[in-house]
Amino acid sequence: MTSATPVPSAVAFRLVGVREVDEDELRETRRDLVAMLTAFEGHRGCTFTLQWLAFPALDDVHGGHIEVSVIVKIPAGMTGAVIEEIADDVSDVLNGPPGLWTFERVTEASELENILRPFDAHYFAEISRREESLPGADLHAVDGARQVGQYL
């Protein structure tokens, strides 16, 4: 008898605020964010999804809203302490300096379920997945894992 494969865990963060910046701040922010992503080097096996969902108001051109979430899928078998460490690292990166946006961790199970399954697909033409390496990523790492490049 074979045992069932453990289901990965997930944590999610929802965008709750954004502020405007000038061009110099934007360049600095891009550089800082790429550097901060190296904090995830120890969390191999995690996948990160940036999810944008648009909810238009068909009867009001100024209505509707967009929800932005970051979803972290954590490999099966990770302990609660490791999951919390990963969640803390992601929160630090998302809400770290220079503070262009604010993300809050999703703590309610029903809200997490809504983020993971925002709607029932009754009809669809295609489901696709696109993965891109960050510029400067070391694609020839010794252990075959992709490393995040750091920009200074």
Give a description of the structure.
This protein is α+β, with helices and mostly antiparallel strands and 152 residues long. The chain is built from 3 helices and 4 strands, in the order βαββαβα. It has helices at 23-36, 80-95, 109-116; strands at 9-18, 47-55, 65-74, 101-105. Strands 2-3-1-4 form a 4-stranded antiparallel sheet.
Please provide a brief summary of the model.
With 152 residues, this protein is α+β, with helices and mostly antiparallel strands. Helices cover 25% and strands 22% of the residues.
What portion of residues is helical? Answer: 25-40%
What is the strand arrangement across the widest sheet?
2-3-1-4
Query: Span between N and C termini?
Result: 53 Å
Order of helices and strands: EHEEHEH
Tally of contiguous helical segments: 3
Rounded mean pLDDT score: 75
Strand content: 15-25%
Biggest sheet features: 4 strands, antiparallel
Shape: globular
Global Rg: 18 Å
List keywords for this structure.
four-stranded antiparallel beta sheet, globular, 3 helices, alpha+beta, disordered C terminus, 22% strand, 152 residues, disordered N terminus, 25% helix
Secondary structure blueprint with pairings:
Elements: E1 9-18, H1 23-36, E2 47-55, E3 65-74, H2 80-95, E4 101-105, H3 109-116
Antiparallel strand pairs: 1-3, 1-4, 2-3
